[in-house]
Design a protein that fits this description.
Layout (H helix, E strand, L loop, with lengths): L1 H20 L14 H7 L4 H19 L8 H29 L7 H12 L25 H4 L1 H20 L4 H25 L9 E8 L13 H16 L5 E3 L13 H14 L3 E10 L5 E10 L6 E5 L19 H7 L16 E4 L16 E8 L6 H9 L4 E6 L9 H16 L2 E6 L5 E3 L5 E4 L6 E8 L6 H5 L2 H24 L1
Helix pairs in contact: 1-2, 1-3, 3-4, 4-5, 5-7, 5-15, 7-8, 9-10, 12-13
Length: about 525
C-alpha cells in the first residue's frame, strides 16, 4: 500500500508540475524538473507496471491541462484524455525497455525519445501538438531564440535534457565529481541559449519595414452570433469598432474567425455593406467567414474561410482552412467509416461538416503609402504578400512555415476561442503564436473574437494585447519579414535528426542485449 501511494504521488507530481508550467501561469521553470518524478516513478518498473503508470500519469496530466475541451463537448474531452494518455504509456514502456537493456547510460537517450514521440503526436489529421514541452518556455524569450534553426522541438529537447541532468545529479549525489560535472553541464545548458538570445534580440524599435494593422475584437457570444435575428447587430458591432480604429489610419483591418456569421457571398446585403465600409475607409479588410463551393450541380462543400476585401475591387481573395479540428470541424476518416459521423452526432459531440482546403494561398495588398496601384488580380503593381491561418492551424509549425517559405511578409492568425470561456486555453493558444513568430522571424497579428488579440514581433515580443471577454480594438505595428530563417527554408531537419538517433539508439540497444544473451 505504501508503494502504491508513492507511485500515485509521483504520478500526480509530474502532472501538476507540467500543467502549471504551461501558459497562462508563467511558471515555465517548473518544466525543468517536471519529468524527474516521472523518471523515479519508472525506476525499476516491470514492463506491465510501466505501461500502467505511464498511462495513469498521462490521464492525470491531460485531465488537468485539457479540461477546457469540456466547454464544447464532454464526450470529446473524455476521448482526448483517454487517447492522448497512450503517448505517455508508450514513452514509459520504451523508457523501461531502454533502462533494462542499456543500464545507467539509457538516460542520455531520453531527450531523443521524448521529442520523437512529441513529433509523432503532431502528425496526421489527428495530430495534436498542443502540449509540446517547448510551449512552457514561451515567456522566456532570451532562452528560445534558437528555434529559428531547430523549430519548436529544439526547445522540448532542451527542457528534457535539463530534467535528465537533474535526475542524474540526484541519482549520483554521493559522487562529488559526477555532481560537479553535471552542474557545469546544467550551467552550460542555460548559458548558451541565454547568450545567443541576448545577442540576437534587437531593440524593439529597430524594424524599418512594417505596416500598421487594426485588430477588431467583437466579443460576440459564439452561440448567439449564428442566430439570424442577431446577424445585423453582429455587423453593427464590427462596423462600429472598425470605424473607431480607422481614425488611426491603419494599413489593414482584421476581423476574427467567422466574424461574418453567414455565407457572406450569398448575402448581398452584408457583402455590399462590407464593400462600402472598405471603400469608404480606403483600407483592406480581412475577415473570417464560412464559404462553399459546388463540386457538382447539386452538391457543394463548405469551408472555414478567410476573405480579403480590397478598396474599389470587386474580387474577393479567399483562403480555405486546411487543417481542421478533428471531430470539431470534421469527422476524420468519415469516407472510410461512413457510420462514424452519425454515431458521434448521437453522442451530441457537435461535429462540424467543413471540408479541408487544398491550396496554400497568399493574400496580396498594396504596400503602405504606395504610389503604385495594385490591381485586383495582383498581376501588376506593388504587392505586399501575407498569409492568414485559422485558429487550430497556428499550432502546426510545419504548415505555417510553408506559407512563409512561399513569400509571406507577415502572418495573420484569426481565431474564435470564445467556445472555451475564460479557461487556460485562451492564453495557451495565444502564446503558441510566439513560437511561430520566432521560427520564421515574422511579425504576427493575432485577432480573436473574445481575446486574446495581440501583436507579436519576429523575436516573440508582444507589443500590444487585449483583455479577455472585452469588446475592443487595438492598432499596432507588424514588422515585415526581411529574411528566411534556417527553419523556414529547411523545416524540421533538427527533429528528423533526433528521430534518426532515436531509431538507431533503440536498434543498437536491442542488438547489444541480443549479443549478451
Amino acid at each position: 500500500m505504501k508503494v502504491l501511494w508513492k507511485n500515485i504521488a509521483l504520478s500526480l507530481l509530474t502532472a501538476l508540475l507540467l500543467t502549471f508550467a504551461f501558459p497562462p501561469y508563467q511558471l515555465g521553470f517548473l518544466a525543468y524538473w517536471g519529468l524527474v518524478p516521472f523518471f523515479y516513478l519508472l525506476k525499476n518498473k516491470t514492463i506491465k507496471d510501466a505501461l500502467k503508470w505511464g498511462y495513469i500519469t498521462g490521464l492525470f496530466f491531460n485531465l488537468m491541462s485539457l479540461y477546457w475541451i469540456a466547454w464544447t463537448t464532454i464526450p470529446g474531452t473524455l476521448a482526448a484524455i483517454l487517447v492522448l494518455a497512450f503517448y505517455f504509456a508508450f514513452y514509459a514502456w520504451t523508457h523501461v525497455q531502454l533502462q533494462k537493456k542499456l543500464g545507467k547510460n539509457f538516460i542520455f537517450l531520453l531527450p531523443f525519445l521524448w521529442v520523437s514521440i512529441e513529433y509523432v503526436r503532431s502528425l496526421g489529421v489527428l495530430g495534436f501538438p498542443w502540449n509540446s514541452l517547448a510551449y512552457t518556455q514561451s515567456y522566456y524569450l532570451s532562452l528560445i531564440q534558437y528555434v529559428s534553426f531547430t523549430g519548436v522541438y529544439g526547445v522540448s529537447f532542451w527542457v528534457v535534457w535539463i530534467n535528465v541532468v537533474l535526475f542524474h545529479i540526484l541519482e549520483n549525489k554521493r559522487s562529488f565529481r559526477t555532481v560537479i560535472w553535471s552542474l557545469l553541464l546544467l550551467i552550460f545548458l542555460f548559458f548558451l541559449p541565454w547568450v545567443y538570445g541576448k545577442l540576437t534580440i534587437p531593440p524593439a524599435d529597430e524594424f524599418q519595414e512594417k505596416i500598421q494593422a487594426a485588430l477588431i475584437q467583437g466579443n460576440v457570444d459564439p452561440l448567439r452570433k449564428w442566430d439570424e435575428a442577431f446577424l445585423a447587430e453582429n455587423f453593427d458591432i464590427y462596423e462600429r469598432l472598425t470605424r473607431k480604429a480607422a481614425n488611426y489610419k491603419p494599413d489593414l483591418i482584421v476581423w476574427p474567425e467567422t466574424a461574418t456569421a453567414c455565407f457572406l457571398r450569398c448575402e448581398p446585403e452584408y457583402s455590399i455593406r462590407i464593400r462600402h465600409l472598405v471603400d469608404s475607409l480606403k483600407t483592406p479588410l480581412l475577415t473570417g467567414s464560412p464559404d462553399y463551393e459546388f463540386v457538382t450541380r447539386t452538391e457543394y462543400e463548405t469551408y472555414n474561410a478567410i476573405f480579403l476585401f480590397l478598396p474599389f475591387c470587386s474580387q474577393i481573395q479567399r483562403y480555405f482552412k486546411i487543417h481542421l479540428v478533428p471531430f470539431g470541424e470534421r469527422v476524420p476518416f468519415e469516407d472510410v467509416i461512413p457510420f462514424l459521423n452519425k454515431f458521434l452526432e448521437s453522442l451530441n459531440m457537435g461535429v462540424g461538416d467543413f471540408s479541408p482546403g487544398k491550396k496554400l494561398v497568399l493574400f496580396h495588398m498594396p504596400y503602405p503609402k504606395s504610389k503604385v496601384e495594385t490591381d485586383c488580380t495582383g498581376s501588376s503593381g506593388d504587392r505586399l504578400l501575407f498569409a492568414g491561418v485559422v485558429c487550430f492551424e497556428s499550432i502546426f509549425p510545419g504548415l505555417v512555415r510553408k506559407f512563409v517559405n512561399r513569400g509571406a511578409r507577415f502572418l495573420v492568425i484569426v481565431t474564435n476561442d470564445a467556445w472555451f470561456g475564460t479557461t487556460s486555453e485562451l492564453a495557451h493558444h495565444a502564446q503558441i503564436a510566439v513560437f511561430r513568430a520566432i521560427e520564421n522571424r515574422i511579425g504576427v497579428a493575432r485577432c480573436a473574437n473574445t481575446g486574446i488579440s495581440m501583436f507579436i514581433d519576429p523575436y516573440g515580443r508582444v507589443s500590444k494585447k487585449t483583455q479577455i471577454n472585452t469588446e475592443a480594438y487595438i492598432v499596432g505595428d507588424v514588422p515585415l519579414r526581411t529574411e528566411k530563417t534556417f527553419y523556414t527554408q529547411h523545416g524540421d531537419v533538427f527533429t528528423y535528426a533526433i528521430l534518426l538517433v532515436t531509431i538507431v539508439g533503440v536498434i543498437k540497444a536491442y542488438a547489444q542485449r541480443n549479443q549478451k544473451t
